[in-house]
Amino acid sequence: MTAIRIVLADDFAPWRQIVRSILDGIPGVCVVAEASDGQEAAQKAETLLPDIVLLDISMPVLNGIEAVDQLHRSGCNSKIIFVTVHSDPDFVRSCLAVGAAGYVIKPRVATDLQPAISQVLAGHSFISPDVVEDNQSPLGN
Questions:
Q1: 102, 112, 115 from 129: Cα distances, Å
Q2: Mean pLDDT in the chain?
Q3: Is 110 helix (H, G, I), strand (E, B) or coil?
Q4: Contact present, 28 and 51 (Cβ < 8 Å)
């Protein structure tokens, strides 16, 4: 079985270490690069062509949404999963609109990251269950 190759991008190094330790515990997953800003994430993804890019939204130089736009313009077909503190459905809509396949909120990273990776690689989308609008299903409609 080929390893699932991941680029991990977040501007807070201690958080990247936490996420990397979670990823290191998932069989068949390999973090091929880390990035501290959106531009670096896009450049590494364009070069390494990982299966998945994990991005925060709020990063310097290019935010996560801008980084995804750059990746699409470059022809990179990596799946995008946002890992962020933003649980507002408007942020989720913005991320899905640029082509993200997954959205994990940071408080749920320990429980949601592995299923998000599995779902996204299977061609499905994943949104952390805590992201709801008006106490309905994720995103309301």
A1: 12, 9, 12
A2: 91
A3: helix
A4: no
